[in-house]
Write a structure and sequence with these properties.
Blueprint lengths: L1 E6 L4 E8 L3 E9 L1 H5 L6 H23 L8 E7 L3 H18 L3 E5 H7 L11 E6 L4 E6 L6 E5 L5 H11 L7 H8 L23 H16 L6 H26 L4 E5 L6 H12 L5 E2 L3 H4 L4 H12 L18
Parallel strand pairs: 1-4, 4-5, 6-9, 9-10
Antiparallel strand pairs: 1-2, 2-3, 6-7, 7-8
Helix pairs in contact: 2-3, 4-11, 5-7, 5-8, 6-8, 7-8, 8-9
The protein binds adenosine-5'-triphosphate (ATP), magnesium ion (MG) and fe (iii) ion.
The site of adenosine-5'-triphosphate has 24 residues, from helix 4, helix 5 and helix 6.
Family: Belongs to the KAE1 / TsaD family.
Pfam family, one: TsaD
Cofactor: Fe(2+)
Length: about 325
């Protein structure tokens, strides 16, 4: 089976072709980071316009790299949500137009299902599995007992992990997106500043990062008032230590309690070196295998959408021509 994937939920225009849900044939990503950088974040109108401009170019490249043509494609999978509505609409409408013109089945995909299925491009899933999702808009623990079904066992009550990274980065006057910059600084600093860890209730797998973010603001502010200056490296290292401590501890606890056969990590923050190292070390002490995707598959791409779409295709799920962008689509 060859599935064509389309992803436009945020600021990357991406098209990919994936074979059997496990093998990348082509994977083209046009990033808009340079256009949004000077605004310190993604500007929705600019994102939509870029998607319109890039879509046909990226599509053509995906076919060129694949040596396939339309007759080889079994179905078109597209991110239907969540994300920026104007950005999603460009991908959904492109997918609908192509499905109609080329007479191919259409499959709407949840963006986070995509992030999860990025892992299957590396290694086959073992159920039950636990997925730690850490991205720009989501921080969740999801239990999967079979393909295409998702049970939410914990989620953030306020900021997502990636959002916290980007906000703290902005306080430290680092460029957008801030995650990778904090990651780099953290490796050069000491986690010498005492910052809180939001454990919440004993039996909760939920997360909270807004208190940590406020603690960082206060720490910087108080130091300034005392006429001291803290090293950016140490702030980054201390912040990152708090985030990683909570994420790894809760993930290990959930993995043990639910007796999972595999743990996977997904989303942009899964690219974080400190998090990857900490999770690898903690799971090495257990007998549960940990799967961490390669960096290029952590952030938004269309191969992950095609991979998740392949499961829907095999399960006979199809979307109609009434498929619409849904910015607050739930993962089920
Ligand atoms: P969502 O997937 O929830 O809809 P999104 O698609 O915007 O949100 P992703 O593209 O998955 O999010 O990830 C982007 C986020 O990952 C940004 O917040 C970015 O700062 C963060 N990020 C990327 N690399 C790193 C890193 N090395 N360390 C920490 N954060 C990182
Ligand atoms: Mg992005
Ligand atoms: Fe994403």
């Amino acid at each position: 089976t060859y599935i064509l994937g389309i992803e436009t939920s945020c600021d990357e225009t991406a098209v990919a072709i994936v074979k059997n849900g496990t093998e990348i044939i082509s994977n083209i990503v046009a990033s808009q980071i340079e256009s949004h950088k000077r605004f310190g974040g993604v500007v929705p109108e600019i994102a939509s316009r870029h998607h319109v401009e890039q879509m046909t170019i990226v599509l053509e490249e995906a076919f060129q790299e694949s040596n396939l043509n339309w007759k080889d494609i079994d179905a078109i999978a597209v991110t239907e949500g969540p994300g920026l509505v104007g950005a999603l609409l460009i991908g959904v409408n492109a997918a609908k137009a192509l499905a109609f013109a080329k007479q191919k089945p259409l499959i709407g995909v949840h963006h986070i299902a995509g992030h999860i299925y990025a892992n299957r491009l590396e290694k086959e899933f073992q159920f039950p599995l636990l997925a730690l999702i850490v991205s720009g808009g989501h921080t969740e623990l999801v239990l999967m007992k079979e393909h295409g079904r998702y049970e939410l066992i914990g989620e953030t009550r306020d900021d997502a992990a990636g959002e916290a990274y980007d906000k703290v980065a902005r306080m430290l006057e680092l460029p957008y997106p801030g995650g990778p910059h904090i990651d780099r600084l953290a490796s050069e600093g000491e986690a010498s500043i005492d910052l809180p860890r939001a454990w919440l209730e004993d039996d909760s797998y939920d997360f909270s990062f807004s208190g940590l973010k406020s603690a960082v603001i206060n720490t910087i502010h108080n130091a300034k008032q005392r006429g001291e200056s803290l090293k950016k490296e140490d702030i980054a290292a201390s912040f990152q230590a708090s985030v990683i401590d909570v994420l790894t501890t809760k993930t290990v606890k959930a993995a043990k309690n639910y007796h999972v056969k595999q743990v996977i990590v997904a989303g942009g923050v899964a690219a974080n070196k400190g998090l990857r190292t900490a999770l690898t070390e903690k799971f090495a002490e257990t007998d549960i295998p940990l799967l961490v995707p390669p960096l290029r598959l952590c952030t938004d791409n269309a191969a992950m959408i095609a991979a998740a779409g392949t499961i829907s295709y095999e399960q006979g799920k199809r979307s109609g021509m009434d498929l619409n962008a849904n910015p607050s689509l739930l993962l089920k």
